Amino acid sequence: MRKTRSLEQWRNIIEEQQASDLTITEFCQQHALSKTSFYAARSKLNTESSRFVQAKVTKHVAPTEQQQLIMVTIGSVKISFPPTMPVAYLSQLLRELAL
Q1: Nearest to 95, CA basis, from 71, 70, 74
Q2: What pLDDT does residue 12 have?
Q3: Which residues make Cβ contacts (< 8 Å) with residue 35, sequence separation at least 6?
Q4: What per-residue confidence (pLDDT) applies to 95?
Q5: Which of 24, 69, 76, 89 suits 50 as a labelling partner, its CA being 20 to 30 A distant?
Q6: Strand partners, 71
Q7: Tell me, what's the pLDDT at 35?
Q8: What is the distance between the alpha carbons of residues 91 and 83, in angstroms, rounded to a whole number?
Q9: Which residues pair with 80 in a beta bridge?
Q10: What is the three-class DSSP state of 8?
Q11: First vs last C-alpha separation in the chain
């Protein structure tokens, strides 16, 4: 008589086989399982677990934390820059000020 198993039952069976030192053939023989059913269930579980799920933005939220200004002090002069200052621009400015 054919026994129908749920995917959860197959997941447990497959995990049990992987934890054992038995090959799939040996495991199926010892547990009276069809190798064809074993491979089919494993394939179906692998397909289901690797499905791509596209995320959708439902709400845009502003950052709650205020970003700190970039502060540069040269001698007695203090210069502040917004945190969005491009790194390349800031880097070039610092190179020029160091001359």
Answers
A1: 74
A2: 93
A3: 24, 25, 28
A4: 82
A5: 24
A6: 80
A7: 94
A8: 14
A9: 71
A10: helix
A11: 88
What per-residue confidence (pLDDT) applies to 28? Answer: 94
Q: So what's the pLDDT on residue 53?
A: 67
Residue type, 24: I
Report the pLDDT value the prediction gives residue 74, as an integer from 0 to 100.
77
Give me the helix-helix angle, 35-49 and 7-19, nearest 10°: 100
What does the pLDDT read at residue 22?
93
pLDDT < 70 regions, the chain: 1, 49-53, 64, 99
Q: Is 68 left (phi over 0), alpha (psi -120 to 50) or beta?
A: beta
- Rounded Cα distance between 72 and 53, Å, is 45
Which amino acid is located at 29 in the chain? Answer: Q
Q: Residue 95 class from Cβ within 10 Å (0-12 exposed, 13-18 middle, 19+ buried)?
A: exposed
What is the spatial distance between Cα 39 and Cα 47, in angstroms, rounded to a whole number?
Answer: 12
Dihedrals φ, ψ of 81, to 5°?
-130, 150
* Residue 13 pLDDT: 94
3-class secondary-structure state, position 73: strand
